[in-house]
Structures are given as C-alpha cells and as structure tokens.
C-alpha cells in the first residue's frame, strides 16, 4: 500500500530539475476543477473568493492610468404616445 510517508520519501529522490512539474501535479490532485472537499467547508470557498478578489483588483488596477469613461448621454428622442 502506498502511504503519504512513502511518497514523501520518494520525493526526496526526485532530481531538482523535476521539482516544479512534480509540484504542479501534486497541486492538481488537491482540488480538481469542479470538486470541493466537503471537509474543507467554507474554508475552500473562502480561498476561491480571495483568488477572485485578487484577480479583480489586478484587472481593475491595470485601468488606473486610463480609466473607462462613459460618453455623453446624447439627446432623448421624443416619440408619439402609444394608444
């Protein structure tokens, strides 16, 4: 049977050049897309909310020097009343 302890021992034998890909593989198994661990409860959802907030702040921050502005409304067109 493979245990976490066995995996940890084997990781010590991995060449440094393969550490980044190995890390990415391990992260994939922590929380696959569309799956949330019921044991994680709100903590897992809070992490996703924080990630989303950081993304929005980063995106909004890129517009700080050239903000999006709404142009003038223009003239309102008068139409005949509906009967």
Structural overview:
- This protein is 48% helix and 0% strand.
- With 83 residues, the protein is mainly α.
- The longest helix is centred in the middle third of the chain and has 20 residues.
- It is elongated.
- The model has no long low-confidence stretch (mean pLDDT 80).
Which SSEs are present, and which pair or pack?
Layout: H1 4-11, H2 19-30, H3 42-61
Main attributes of the structure:
48% helix, 3 helices, 83 residues, mainly alpha
Roughly what fraction of the amino acids lie in strands?
under 5%
The gyration radius over C-alpha positions equals: 26 Å
Number of strands: 0
Termini Cα gap:
80 Å
Overall 3D shape:
elongated
Global structural class: mainly alpha
Low-confidence stretches: none
Overall helicity: 40-55%
Annotation field: number of helices: 3
Report mean pLDDT, rounded to a whole number.
80
Main sheet record: none
SSE pattern: HHH
**Quaternary structure state of the chains depicted:** single chain
Quick overview:
This protein has three helices and no strands. It has helices spanning 4-11, 19-30, 42-61.
């Amino acid at each position: 049977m493979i245990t976490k302890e066995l995996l940890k021992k084997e990781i010590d034998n991995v060449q440094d050049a393969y550490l980044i890909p190995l890390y990415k593989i391990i992260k994939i198994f922590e929380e696959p897309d569309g799956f949330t661990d019921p044991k994680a409860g709100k903590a897992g959802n809070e992490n996703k909310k924080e990630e989303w907030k950081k993304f929005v702040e980063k995106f909004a921050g890129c517009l700080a020097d050239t903000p999006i502005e709404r142009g003038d409304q223009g003239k309102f067109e008068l139409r005949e009343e509906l009967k």
